[in-house]
Design goal:
four-stranded mixed sheet; 15% strand; 9 helices; 310 residues
Length: 310
């Protein structure tokens, strides 16, 4: 492979694979998961996100192979209810991150993006004169109505959203299903955000967490994907609830063409970066970045700018 542009685009990739209690190793030019029953091949070149649950182990060669194919790796807890760590995405350019940071740093532009993110969740057009507090109130009504509608559609008892990470088993099935479904959605949105070169920490609606922007983006799709998936799984027979939720999420990710939408939606909300690409960032990790100059913008790095002796 000559450069990373040969890789499939995010919109063409699979969403995610979740594994637990398996060993992941390199297998030819891809990777495979092994357990007592044998081998499962993983087509990492077409995969966006590999989620590793408890009991997983992975070799250095497999990590290197996944990274070279732009597949994000996330280490998570049982049932996808905790996030521990992640690997790096495939982009080498900072232009999207700089655009995001510049919008965040200006209170007026941050407020505009926050308004646009809320408005993107509604089918109808919201009045321009509405305040952010009024929009948050209307958003709360929209989400509560979605819970009620799904509860009625799938015949699931619903008494409200309740989640405590330190008392997972005490929650009712639909609340556990919602937590798992949201975790799946967070993982896919996180992978798309990092693959496109944005920061998962710089949020516009949410703030103060390393995944604030992930929560911002996932909220655009929750009422369409994770909430229906959770209620549908909770309405079905007893058994592997978390597994059913993951499968329903997988099906909805595919039918809603989620990966085709996330990056264009981000571009629509944040706009195109003002800075043009400065050379080929993907050609080699050994190529230094550019240097900032207040007059010239970006100038070449890796150059000795010492003035010659007079």
């Amino acid at each position: 492979m000559q450069d990373l542009h040969e890789l499939p685009k995010v919109r063409d990739s699979w969403t995610y694979v979740y594994l637990e209690h398996r060993r992941i190793d390199q297998d030819a030019k891809a990777v495979a998961a092994w357990d007592a029953s044998g081998k499962i091949a993983i087509p990492c070149a077409a995969l966006t996100l590999l989620m590793l649950g408890p009991g997983s182990s992975i070799t250095h060669a497999a990590i290197s192979c996944l990274a070279s194919h732009g597949c994000m790796i996330v280490w998570c807890g049982e049932g996808l209810v905790r996030f521990y760590a992640l690997g790096m995405g495939e982009t080498r350019s900072s232009r999207h991150l700089l655009r995001q940071a510049s919008l965040y740093a200006d209170p007026a532009s941050r407020l505009r993006v926050a308004f646009d993110m809320y408005r993107a969740r509604f089918q109808e057009t919201l009045p321009e004169e509405m305040t952010l507090q009024q929009i948050r109130g209307r958003e709360g009504i929209r989400v509560r109505s979605t819970y009620t509608r799904c509860a009625q559609e799938y015949g699931v008892p619903w008494s409200g959203r309740a989640y405590r990470s330190n008392a997972w088993t005490s929650a009712d099935p639909v609340n556990r299903a919602l937590s798992v479904a949201n975790s799946c959605l967070y993982g896919v949105c996180h992978a798309a955000i990092v693959a496109a070169g944005y920061s998962p920490a710089i949020g516009f609606v949410h703030t103060g967490k390393m995944l604030s922007f992930v929560y911002d983006v996932a909220d655009l799709y929750k009422t369409e994907i994770s909430i229906p998936a959770a209620f549908r799984a909770a309405s079905q027979a007893e058994g592997d609830l978390e597994g059913r939720v993951r499968r329903h999420c997988r099906d909805l990710f595919l039918s809603s063409r989620l990966l085709e939408r996330i990056v264009p939606d981000l571009t629509k909300l944040l706009g195109e970066p003002d800075l043009p690409e400065q050379g080929d960032f993907d050609a080699s990790d050994d190529v230094p970045g550019h240097l900032w100059d207040p007059e010239g913008g970006a100038i070449a790095g890796g150059v000795n700018y010492e003035e010659p002796d007079e």
